[in-house]
């Protein structure tokens, strides 16, 4: 058996190596902070000194004020809550529906062969183009969910189905020799062997659902971060727009980190 | 073929019988004649090796015997009854150990009982006992990735044995191992199979391995695989009781068997 346990007492050479690693890690962190600070400083400096039009770009201190302004109005929580709920619901529906469809396709190769060209076209179609149609059919709220689900659904089906199909044929053969039927191959080999595919799909969908929801909110809505962005730009409050965008990126990073945590636990 | 070699007239049918078996694969690329007019029998407790060039239908024979597919014509019989599908009676060890890396060693061994809906507490006790016998007692709750190649192969044998099969099919199970591990693990697994009185068929293209482990060696022709010859392997110079796989490699008869089989396979070009 390969022994990978480290030595109990590290040598001097190892300690030097570890110290170098530590220094390199600190340099990376400092570099990142400098980049961020440099960007914020430039963003603050250039509009204030007439190098760019502050009406168009706003600047960090104004965004900060805009952020507190939104909180003072007591509406920020509502906007964040509305967007988050729309993202969560459409994300969940796209995942569940997509997984169910991928499983059906795997269980029935005939169905897969019939549906294949349609799925390819639907996946390639820019779903954003459907926003006006969804709006006419489903109204303001329904269209937001419809876009967000449509954006994430087809890629979910295709990613999962591809993963299922790439499962180790030797493991499938082995399960068959032990007497497994289609359903048992699914539950014992295909699904547990595709946890990483599932996680990759989840990660892709976090971003996609968010895109779908924001675009849906652009078309028509009375609340949500997408609404805030459109409204802010209409009344030329760039500070409000920028604040909403910053919050949006924080939300997407937050959800991504949650998914990553879940992956670490599931694939332990 | 005459009735004598197929054992058709015996009161007790042979453990395994291939009767005029033909197999054709059909694919969009065309038709492949993989096995042609196969006839042989294996008695209970016998260890048979099948050798032949790559692509001559060795794996196909095992798949037929395991019931993963049906012959195009002819019959494959176990205990005189046609094989209809996989049964717990037949255990299959593949070239890749195919341990599920998301399961522990013990959970891997319990895969078969789970699939067959067996009594799980009893299966668990059996799996623990078998794996412990195979020197894996310390590793029951380890993941396959934490084990060496030889240990993984023993775990795979444990998974097969947990179903308590009386026939074992081994499809080049040692070919992914390094030379040293291969020698010791084939000796070890050969011992286990003989000790437990299982009927076994080993497929390999390693002639020395085939001779060292088997009571009889079947030589197949290149595709479509036909039965070319059957050699009885005995070592009179080593006495009444056959010694282990390692010891027989030094016997005088061993070189002769090797030479004969080698020449037979060479002549196919
Ligand atoms: N599923 C399949 N479809 C079509 N041809 C196959 C299939 N499986 C095996 N064959 C062909 O049948 C022949 C025998 O294969 P196999 O039994 O795997 O040979 P071996 O195990 O002796 O190397 C080979 O020529 C192989 O290409
Ligand atoms: Mg083969």
From TrEMBL, chain A:
GO cellular component labels: plasma membrane
CDD domains xrefs: TM_PBP2 (cd06261)
Keyword tags: Cell membrane, Membrane, Transmembrane, Transmembrane helix, Transport
Recorded topology in the membrane: Multi-pass membrane protein
Listed transmembrane segments: 29-46, 87-107, 119-138, 144-164, 240-259
Boundaries of every ABC transmembrane type-1 domain copy: 80-259
Stored InterPro entries: MetI-like, MetI-like_sf
Domain of life assignment: Bacteria
Keyword Cell membrane among UniProt keywords: yes
Subcellular location: Cell membrane
Predominant subcellular localization, coarse grouping: membrane
UniProt feature coiled coil, ranges: none
Single Gene Ontology BP annotation: transmembrane transport
Family from the record: Belongs to the binding-protein-dependent transport system permease family.
Protein name, entry field: NitT/TauT family transport system permease protein
Gene source species: Celeribacter baekdonensis
From TrEMBL, chain B:
SUPFAM superfamilies, alphabetized: P-loop containing nucleoside triphosphate hydrolases (SSF52540)
The organism's place on the tree of life at top rank: Bacteria
Transmembrane found in the keyword field: no
InterPro entries: AAA+_ATPase (IPR003593), ABC_transporter-like_ATP-bd (IPR003439), ABC_transporter-like_CS (IPR017871), ABC_transporter_ATP-bind (IPR050166), P-loop_NTPase (IPR027417)
GO MF annotation: an example: ATP hydrolysis activity
Keywords: ATP-binding, Nucleotide-binding, Transport
A Pfam family: ABC_tran
Domain ABC transporter: residue ranges: 18-247
Gene3D superfamilies membership: P-loop containing nucleotide triphosphate hydrolases
Residues passing through the membrane, by range: none
Keyword Protein biosynthesis annotated: no
Similarity comment: Belongs to the ABC transporter superfamily.
PANTHER family: ALIPHATIC SULFONATES IMPORT ATP-BINDING PROTEIN SSUB, TAURINE IMPORT ATP-BINDING PROTEIN-RELATED
Protein name as it appears in the record: NitT/TauT family transport system ATP-binding protein
Organism per entry: Celeribacter baekdonensis
